[in-house]
Design a protein that fits this description.
Strand content of chain A: 25-35%
Largest sheet of chain A: 10 strands, parallel
Shape of chain A: flat
Oligomer: homotrimer
Distance between the termini of chain A: 56 Å
Helix content of chain A: 10-25%
């Protein structure tokens, strides 16, 4: 906990309001409650700013007129937010063996595991050798956790969950603010990972924790090996994602989707329920209609590809040469 | 070992045949021997069903007329099979240090390794720190295994094999049956991984064990970092696969192939010997002729790509507008 | 250290020069100094060969006339080089706990870590549980290293560096020479990894050490999860690379670049400063102009893609049918 005055000092902000206000934690603008500090980066969110329950908000000068609470006024809101997150980061110390405050029921915890403070592990769960479980994590009953797994920072895991060896759950998200010298400032991710019942997670897969809220893997989800799930992603119930696929930050994928292997999903998208995407495709826009989608270049003998590829990059010139307009083409 | 009667009960099957038949293990229909239970999902395999040596078979009612052995009749064969696999799964307990039944010759086993029951490690092999080797695994002579490696469930590894740190060998395959509620039921993979002599496996690469038979990495193969090899894949001798490539289930890749980085290979394909595939391509059909293959979109300035991309999705409309038929085009 | 005579014997080379010359190490032709052995694979480098400071060079017969120093003459220079590298490889033995020669200042080293000989760890650095740090590694001050991390073979890491769990730093590069039987012979990578200040490295990311010189990650770089950085790659200051991207050997990426997720970067390329590449693109040629680049197939309903894909592979035939020449098209 820090006072608003201390925080203002850290980021060189103009404080408009109560200097000794105690800030307990950070939250996004539409979730924030009393005692929390939030931030608004653009006038797009001016209504949320006006109506926020946050006790204080980081904003730039032009947004001040929409602010009805304590304000930290800075030039670069996102950068100030990034710097402030580190104040609220809990530094973890790994336990030797099983911490005395952990409740492991009858779970089998293999050798060389580090099980942190207040960890709770359900009945009939097995934890493989050399696995690390950080403070405050909850693991349900009848789970099978592999070897060399890292379960970080107060992750919540349901019942009947399988996590294969080498997986990392709760790693830092890839969120960085850039200053005017083009140097990156990491955001300390303060959210967690929440995994439902009956989820399977493959070998060497990584799931990042959320920035302020949580990353959610809902019940029944299947994630294959070497999958990357970024911060604040939501994967809906019974969705299956094949190996080597990556889902970028804040994207929501619906229920019962089947995402093929090595698909790239761009951030901040919405994929509706019952979508099938074939292997190697790129999802770079929202998908609002269930169905099967593909976007890959067909495989060709290399010599053919070299010629086709050249013409492909001239498609705009070809249609111009042929005087074809988009309006000439029937249907979509 | 379970009786056919017990198994029938588990999946609510109609048992046609011998209730107290002892089933020792599961096998695919064309490999099954006496004492084994198999399954057939489609009438495509009716000849194999008629001729199987299996002592019992899981089938749907319409296939019963082709069955000459004991039968478990169910509505959803694949789902029943998935559920039954778990009966035959050996639950692993990790050893503290080197199990007394392990034979490690003069191998150097670094600190914090867990070496399971009946593991055999050949002369002059080195095992890096914090590596886990599960029960029944065989590792040959003169191998170098890195740190934090997980070698699971009775893997067989030849001589002169290098496995870099963080690799996972023998993880569960990504095989799941879906029930009518669209919930996934994992298949417990009962096959293993078999790795020949002189194979190198990169950092954080994962190789899944087979479903009933084994995943095979033949001698002389080179796998780079972060490669994914799925269940039942076969990689032929002296084939090299660059980083971040994924090979989906049951695909067979021939000898002396060179697969570039971040190539996606779809499941159930055959790639012949001496095939070269350039980086980032997608292999989504069999390759039956040696040669060099490519399938990627050329890189363009983003503004150009936006225009080209639009025309590209209209190629069908453009050819229609120009009244071009496939038959108009000479050659292939 | 080995004499030139011993080395000649290993690879069956004709030695022209001093049999008892002591070779201390290997180096590439333009960096080599007295006491070092180098190699030249093609006449393209004949000037560098003539002017090298190396005490000896591995060459083929036709290049001998350009050589002014001791020579090992072989049929296949690259293969001989690969075999010789293994003579100079230092075999690592992992320490139990912290080696007495390591200097860990006030760093917090979690349980089950193995910290090798002569390792130096700066003030206020934290090393997570089950992490392995090999001999000769230097880690700066105020770093946060996760759990189950492998830091291999004399890596150098600056201050304020974050390495997430499961990352592997300093793994073997994917360099292999092929003999006339098409068998692969690994190159023992003798270079290291050098990481600057303020670098962040994501979960399960791998960075290979250099072949003879080092792999360089310059200060301020951000690497997300499951990224692959190959041997001898150089990543310039303040460049950010999103998850699942792979950079192949010897490519140089400039400063302040932003490379999206799952981008594939081919080897031996130069990417200039201030380049932005969108997710899933392939970089298969040098980029010499700052700007935004893209190269992906747009996502389509699968049925549309099937038709578009067919026409796409006929683009050469379509332009031929329409009698369009590249010279007909205005602009580039």
């Amino acid at each position: 906990m820090h006072t608003l005055g201390e925080i203002a000092k850290l980021v060189n902000a103009e404080l408009v309001g109560q200097n000794d206000l105690v800030i307990k934690s950070l939250a996004s603008i539409n979730c924030a409650k009393s005692g929390q500090l939030s931030y608004v980066v653009s006038s797009k969110y001016q209504d949320q700013l006006s109506n926020t329950q946050a006790s204080a908000v980081i904003i730039s000068q032009p947004l001040h007129k929409f602010c009805n609470t304590n304000a930290l006024i800075v030039d670069d809101v996102y950068l100030a937010f990034a710097q402030i997150t580190h104040l609220f980061k809990h530094k973890v110390v790994h336990t030797n063996g099983i911490h005395t405050s952990a409740d492991t029921n009858n779970a089998i915890v293999a050798p060389n595991c580090c099980i942190g403070e207040r960890v709770s592990i359900g009945c009939d769960t097995t934890i493989g050798a050399n696995t690390v479980v950080e403070d405050g994590t909850t693991i349900g009953a009848n789970c099978t956790i592999g070897a060399n797994v890292s379960i970080l920072q107060a992750t919540t895991i349901g019942n009947n969950v399988v996590i294969e060896s080498g997986a990392v759950i709760g790693s830092e998200g890839f969120g960085n603010a850039r200053d005017r010298h083009k140097h990156w400032h990491s955001i300390a991710h303060l959210g967690n990972v929440v995994i439902g019942n009956n989820v399977n997670i493959g070998a060497n897969t990584s799931i990042d924790r959320g920035t302020l809220e949580d990353t959610h893997i809902h019940q029944g989800v299947r994630l294959d090996n070497l999958v990357h799930i970024a911060h604040n992603v939501v994967i809906g119930e019974d969705t299956a994602i094949a190996a080597c696929t990556g889902v970028a930050g804040s994207t929501h994928i619906g229920k019962r989707c089947m995402i093929g292997g090595m698909v790239g999903v761009v951030g901040h998208l919405d994929i509706c329920d019952d979508v099938i995407v074939n292997a190697k495709s790129t999802i770079n826009k929202n998908i609002l209609t269930p169905g099967i989608y593909t976007g890959i270049m067909p495989l060709m003998p290399h010599k053919k590809w070299q010629i086709v590829g050249v013409w492909l990059t001239k498609l705009d010139k070809i249609t111009q040469y042929l005087n074809i307009k988009l309006t000439h083409l029937k249907g979509k």
